[in-house]
Specification:
single chain, 214 residues, mainly alpha, 9 helices
Amino acid sequence: MAQAITWTPAGTRQPEWDLNVVRPEAAAAADSSFSDLGEAALVAACLGGQNGAFDVIVERHRRAVYQLCYRFVGNHEDASDLSQEVFLRAYRGLRNFRGRSSLGTWLYRIGVNVCLNRVSVKKPQSEPIEAQQHVDTRTESPSEQLMSAERAARVRAAIAKLPRKQRAVLILRMYQEMSHQEIAKVVGSSVGAVKANVFHALQNLKKLLAGENV
């Protein structure tokens, strides 16, 4: 099911989203008056209190943020909650965005921190196989779908056991397909440290999947 976001600008009410309810006007376009703006102009519009500007930020980045959160927690309900938390923190902290990185990188940084804080206090629970909507079933037989889903669930469970930094960089590298340079910007580390963490994460993941202890 497609994910859509309902956003209520700050004012007398707290910003709110519902990632599971499709709002037609939000799905079509958050606000045509802001849709063509670049990042700097869009952020300036948000900080200037122009209604609808943050809708565009949410619309542009909602899928990437949701997918990132899902990779950490492995179920759709928690991923929806975490996505809302990411955008809420971004809205409240937008004045801290200096433009030294892209807005997407900044949101990823918030997302990684939010997700790591959540999974450190709550053991990730994977969706039942039939609820794993991220599995591409168009070219697979039912038996292949089942095996793919089982493998994916096993890998997610193993990744959840990795140390925090290893878990973060591996998810960004393996699932989000980010370069080492991009990951370094997200996690605030050097490229060399990222490469080392990815290497150790893969080694530990292999041990976990083989039934060994890290």
